[in-house]
Amino acid sequence: MATDSSNGLEGDNTLQSIRYHRGSLQLLDQRKLPLETTYLDIKDASDGWLAIREMVVRGAPAIAIAAALSLAVEVYNLVNYNGTPVEAASFLAGKLDYLVSSRPTAVNLSDAATKLKEVVSKAAAAAASNCQDVFQAYIEAAEIMLADDVASNKAIGSYGARFIQNQQKDPTKLSVMTHCNTGSLATAGYGTALGVIRALHSEGVLERAYCTETRPFNQGSRLTAFELVHEKIPATLIADSAAAALMKDGKVSAVIVGADRVAANGDTANKIGTYSLALCAMHHNIPFFVAAPLTSIDSSLSSGKEIIIEERSPKEMLNARGGLGEQVAASGISVWNPAFDVTPASLISGIITEKGVITKTGTDDFDIKGFIKRAVGQCIA
């Protein structure tokens, strides 16, 4: 993979995790932020799989888009393919299954793969189609996903900012805590939870954003802090273990996090440490919100108990800089390093989506299927 490197925070391009033009894809290597801005050329699905697995790109929405576009680049530049339309569709489906295996917890990736399979299947079945028609249909569908993600994020920001203000005694002075990274670097642009914070700031009601380090990979200190400084949003970085003390001091109006997968009852898988924040927020009577697009909802899962939790390399804890630096732990110690935890719906105040905020109706669970049916106008089986 060729690279294009530069240093510093100059220009809006530093906040683009995905650079795409038809036939060309570059992903910002987020492992090197905030000290170095390096883009990797992604030429095919294999490059995309590796970039996702090795955390070059991360964040559930961005993972899905990067996977889809990596395959779009591969088929755009594919020459001398002589298969039938059905064989072309099968080729694409196999590549999509391979990409989904890169990081299984983020449901956006499998959701995107399912939708793209449907597109190519229909294209293959169309009368007088050829393999290039199937490839073209795939490329166009992947590009639509890229554009839709940005629009979805802006809607999440707008709905979330309005809802949170309406819930506060003083909606003109808000301090919000967030965990992990959910901004432009985790999506195609703008962000989910960080998009809500960005919207509050643009409306002039955000006093301060607090971001956690988010150990052991430090997405908060490396990435969220990077975005907040770039956007000139008043912000403070805290240790993960300082969150409860800050809440006790009365400095947090609300907590907003993202999601990698939301079960049908509202149980939510997000970056490890989210569950702890939710417990602390409940104890201190602070509203706790999840901000995520509808593609993060997995209606096939009745609860969070069914969510597969990815475990990461022990090296991320044994060595500094999320495994990239020198050893800091004792040799021979065993490690448990889950990438995510599951926050029960009972601890969540609302789920902010691009169609509005899902709230509870007198129980600990959310009627997510009912909300989607009303918002989208279709029944989810």
From TrEMBL:
Record-stated family: Belongs to the eIF-2B alpha/beta/delta subunits family. MtnA subfamily.
Active site: D260 (proton donor)
Catalytic activity: 5-(methylsulfanyl)-alpha-D-ribose 1-phosphate = 5-(methylsulfanyl)-D-ribulose 1-phosphate
Pathway: Amino-acid biosynthesis; L-methionine biosynthesis via salvage pathway; L-methionine from S-methyl-5-thio-alpha-D-ribose 1-phosphate: step 1/6
UniProt source species: Salix viminalis (Common osier)
UniProt function note: Catalyzes the interconversion of methylthioribose-1-phosphate (MTR-1-P) into methylthioribulose-1-phosphate (MTRu-1-P).
Record InterPro entries: IF-2B-related, IF-M1Pi, IF_2B-like_C, Initiation_fac_2B_a/b/d, M1Pi_N, NagB/RpiA_transferase-like
Keywords associated with the record: Amino-acid biosynthesis, Cytoplasm, Isomerase, Methionine biosynthesis, Nucleus
Name assigned to this protein: Methylthioribose-1-phosphate isomerase
EC number: 5.3.1.23
